[in-house]
Design a protein that fits this description.
This is DUF1223 domain-containing protein. The protein is built from four helices and eleven strands. By secondary structure, it is α+β, with helices and mostly antiparallel strands. The chain has a single domain, classed as 3-Layer(aba) Sandwich (Glutaredoxin). A four-stranded mixed β-sheet has the order 2-1-3-4, with helices on both faces. Strand 1, helix 2 and strand 2 form a beta-alpha-beta unit.
Length: about 220
């Protein structure tokens, strides 16, 4: 999969700014030769106010010759749970999950744009942040309140494996995924520990259906 820079620019400019962010998860690996174009797409999405773009590095490529420096087996398991939702046990890299619902492997920029557009505004005013205090409005749907800590940007020199010899820049690299509490869907508030120096923080509200991740119900960035 190859993406021209003009296409990436079009993606960045075409998505209108909005108050209600769409959560876009990218499952990727430093050891996957098909992933760098998707990593670049995610980087473009991090510039948009109406998108919370998160890069989750999986570990199941590590055996092929390069151990991903950001990989976490918990992210591989999360991706598998998304597959299980549709009765599958297949995982792909790169794979985007949009709004906790739509799964697409290696999309074009326009395919990804269309998915984001279809979810835009779906999480209206569920989460609002004031410092590290997050106010949650009632949705009537149970789920989890989740704190996600991420590193905004890092460049890695890959020495072995499919991407050997390449320098790859990653964006919004998830370093911790913490369930703050199980949530019954009612109005509440939650205090979030600070992210720490060099890291950023978002809070997500996600439905959990039969023990598997469901639709994103809300999302907010913490300053």
């Amino acid at each position: 999969m190859r993406l021209a820079s003009a296409t990436l620019t079009m993606l960045a400019l075409a998505i209108p700014a909005a108050a209600d962010p769409v959560v876009v998860e990218l499952y990727t690996s430093q050891g996957c030769s098909s992933c760098p174009p998707a990593d670049a797409m995610l980087g473009e999405l991090t510039t948009r106010d109406n998108v919370i773009a998160l890069s989750l590095h999986v570990d199941y490529w590590d055996w092929i010759g390069w151990k991903d420096t950001f990989a976490d087996p918990a992210f591989s398991e999360r991706q598998l749970l998304y597959a299980n939702v549709v009765g599958s046990n297949m995982r792909y890299t790169p794979q985007f999950v949009v709004g906790g619902v739509d799964r697409v492997a290696g999309p074009s920029a326009m395919e990804l744009f269309d998915l984001i557009q279809s979810h835009d505004g779906a999480t209206n005013d569920v989460l609002q942040a004031d410092g590290t205090e997050v106010t949650v409005t009632a949705t009537g749907q149970a789920g989890q309140l989740i704190a996600v800590t991420y590193r905004p940007k890092a460049t890695v020199e890959v020495l072995h494996g499919e991407n050997a010899g390449h320098s790859i820049t990653y964006h919004n690299i998830v370093r911790s995924w913490t369930v703050l509490r199980e949530w019954d869907g009612s109005a509440t508030t939650v205090s979030v520990p600070p992210a720490g120096d060099g890291y950023s923080l978002v809070v997500l509200a996600q439905a959990i259906i039969d023990g598997k991740p469901g639709p994103m119900l809300g999302a907010v960035k913490l300053d």
